[in-house]
Task: inverse folding
């Protein structure tokens, strides 16, 4: 960014967004924050009261829509549903739930095939259901919005390098756009099934409100998230200032993410959901920022100073209801760095690093709720 002051305190354009979707996301986030119950808590409470009837494994598998296979040599029974797998051998109390061994009432081999006790069937059924619910609560990054800063009438920061008539100008808006286009192309190639969007594709000037509104109006499913990466170059009155940094939303700032007027939202619950969503977004934004800074450090850390991850309340990220960061690629007001930023090979390393940082984050984001078992 060139002059953060011109962002100013804004009205809340995000209010015209999608409060219902935001609320659904909030509920999912709240669910995601809840740790899975320990295994002992899954034992059906009724198990001791009255022994449920034994059931054939074939009937059990059919009742939960799972696929059954029996190893003809070892007699090992495997039940697979949506990628979740249970395996056991009749006669043994050990049942492998995913990769976790659990002691349950042993099954036996009946005249028509393997049979399991009712208590075991109830336990396994609850386990499959829990795995299914957890899978549904997991997030997917459905969209990435890359926002090249400035553009059109707004050049952003302006730097110069070179001597005499060879002196060249470097405009932040141009650096931001070429980096953003490269990041967009790499992400589209990597994730053809996700929406990879740009806030501008040419030398135009969407207002800051337009950019945030664009992010907030992307249609998302209840378990889908969008991440927002704004790309800038830095400026300072201190001509020696140099290096890259990534900003994220200041955790002290509290946004109103859920309108208390949203139908179905209890007025007393909305503020709680707000806080949970806020904290979750902040955490995600920090992680995204760290991912990108780490990749930048590995890529250009030898030629540019790593100024690290920083927190602020810039308008661009403040009103976006999603993990959001702002990348400052370097200082155009530092002549050596302006020259570096004007080098397409250097800019390519930056765009590759931003791309890899986003890929790292998506990988983490979508697998962190991943259980210890496959
Ligand atoms: Zn800027």
Result:
């Amino acid at each position: 960014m060139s002059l953060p002051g011109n962002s100013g305190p804004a009205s809340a354009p995000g209010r015209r967004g999608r409060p219902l979707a935001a609320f659904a996301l909030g509920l999912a986030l709240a669910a995601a924050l809840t740790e899975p119950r320990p295994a002992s808590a899954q034992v059906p409470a009724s198990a001791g009261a009255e022994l449920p009837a034994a059931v054939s494994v074939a009937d059990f598998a059919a009742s939960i829509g799972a696929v059954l296979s029996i190893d003809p040599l070892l007699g090992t029974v495997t039940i697979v549903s949506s990628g979740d797998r249970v395996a056991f051998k009749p006669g043994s109390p050990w049942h492998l739930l995913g990769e976790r061994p659990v002691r349950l009432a042993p099954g036996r081999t009946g005249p028509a095939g393997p049979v399991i006790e009712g208590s075991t069937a109830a336990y396994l059924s609850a386990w499959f259901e829990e795995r299914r619910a957890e899978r549904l609560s997991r997030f997917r990054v459905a969209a990435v919005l890359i926002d090249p800063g400035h553009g059109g009438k707004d050049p952003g920061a302006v730097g110069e390098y070179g001597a005499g008539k060879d002196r060249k100008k470097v405009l932040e808006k141009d650096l931001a756009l070429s980096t953003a286009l490269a990041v967009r192309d790499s992400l589209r190639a990597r994730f053809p099934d996700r929406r990879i969007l740009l806030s501008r594709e040419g030398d135009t000037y969407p207002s800051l409100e337009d950019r945030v509104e664009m992010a907030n109006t992307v249609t998302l499913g209840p378990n889908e998230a969008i991440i927002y990466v704004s790309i800038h170059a830095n400026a300072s009155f201190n001509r020696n200032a140099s290096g890259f940094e990534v900003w994220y939303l200041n955790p002290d700032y509290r946004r109103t993410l859920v309108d208390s007027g949203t139908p179905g939202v209890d007025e007393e619950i909305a503020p709680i959901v707000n806080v949970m969503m806020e904290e979750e977004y902040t955490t995600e934004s920090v992680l995204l920022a760290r991912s990108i800074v780490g990749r930048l450090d590995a890529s250009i850390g030898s030629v540019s100073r790593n100024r690290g991850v920083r927190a602020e309340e810039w308008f661009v990220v403040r009103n976006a209801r999603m993990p959001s960061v702002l990348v400052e690629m370097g200082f155009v007001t530092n002549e050596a760095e302006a020259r570096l930023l004007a080098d397409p090979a250097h800019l390519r390393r930056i765009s590759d690093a931003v791309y890899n940082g986003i890929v790292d984050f998506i990988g983490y984001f979508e697998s962190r709720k991943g259980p210890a078992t496959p």
The chain has two domains: 4-33+140-367, 53-116.
